[in-house]
Amino acid sequence: MCRGFLLGADLLIHPAYNENTGTVLLEALVAGLPVLVTDVCGYAHYISEADCGLVVPTPFKQEQLDQMLADMLNNGALRKEWQANALRFADQADLYSLPEHAADVILGRALEPDADAARTLCQPVGWTGCLCRRRGAAGRGVP
After folding, report:
1. What's the helix, strand, coil split of the chain in %, to 5?
2. What digits encode the pLDDT tens for the residues 42-76?
């Protein structure tokens, strides 16, 4: 996404119905942009962890999304706080190796004999259907 658009926005809204990752959320976080996202998005947990926006819970209700958006737009002070939280989180968290972790999972490199090692690779990606979970019965990866 073009950084200029992120820097010129008041917030990012990402009301996904289904999304494995949602890389745009990490881009917004790194740009210090508050986010409103649905909880089905794989990276939505980063928004909660960073305290840099709001996450719409399941089951999705349009009225709830509308109200959360209106609240965010009407509270400039809270948006500034979320912006600072996002930038602080981006400086401290390892957000930049996520694509490599995802590639490792896709290519089957996450099939470690140690379940904890496999879990370490897969959980940061937020991918509950990863290869190592499918291979659990073979004694490799996460059961």
Report:
1. 55, 10, 35
2. 899 999 999 999 999 999 999 999 999 999 999 99
Query: How many Å apart are CA 55 and CA 32, to the nearest integer?
Result: 16
Residue 136: beta bridge partners? Answer: none
Task: Give the C-alpha separation, 88 to 101, whole Å.
Answer: 23
Helix, strand, or coil (residue 39): coil
| Alpha carbon distance 123, 120 (integer Å) | 6
For 2-27, the pLDDT digits (tens) are 556 777 789 999 999 988 888 899 99
In angstroms, the CA 51 to CA 55 distance is: 10
The Cα–Cα gap between 28 and 134 comes to 32
Local structure of 129: helix, strand or coil: coil
How far is C-alpha 111 from the chain's CA centre? 23
